[in-house]
Design brief:
Elements (H helix, E strand, L loop, with lengths): L1 E3 L8 H14 L3 E17 L2 E12 L2 H13 L3 E4 L19
Antiparallel strand pairs: 1-3, 1-4, 2-3
Length: about 100
């Protein structure tokens, strides 16, 4: 999840995120989905801002590639906050038990 500065125009959000996501693509990862939620009110003030532009990014990459993406996002002044969450792997269904004889 990325929260961007609300002063950005919403139509420029996707191209600027694509610039950061090139790190993932060049590192051998894959970007599954980029979902821009748009301008939302923050639950608390961050860097004197009460609003932010939310973007949710689903990707698959090695941990070092994700760390580099997070580092580059953190260094950018238009990014207010980042949050990287590793989703748990889907559990495999158990084999059905045999009925007791």
């Amino acid at each position: 999840m990325v929260i961007l500065d609300p002063d950005l125009e919403e139509r420029t959000v996707a191209p600027s995120l694509d610039q950061f996501l090139s790190v993932v693509r060049n590192g051998g990862g894959a970007v599954e989905k980029v979902d821009v939620w748009g301008r939302r009110r923050l639950s608390y003030e961050i860097r004197k801002s009460h609003e932010g532009i939310y973007a949710i990014i689903d990707l698959h990459a090695e941990p070092d590639v994700v760390a580099e993406l997070d580092r580059q996002l953190t260094l950018n002044e238009s990014v207010i906050r980042t949050k990287v969450i590793r989703l748990p792997e889907a559990k495999k269904p158990r084999a059905a038990r045999r009925p007791a004889a």
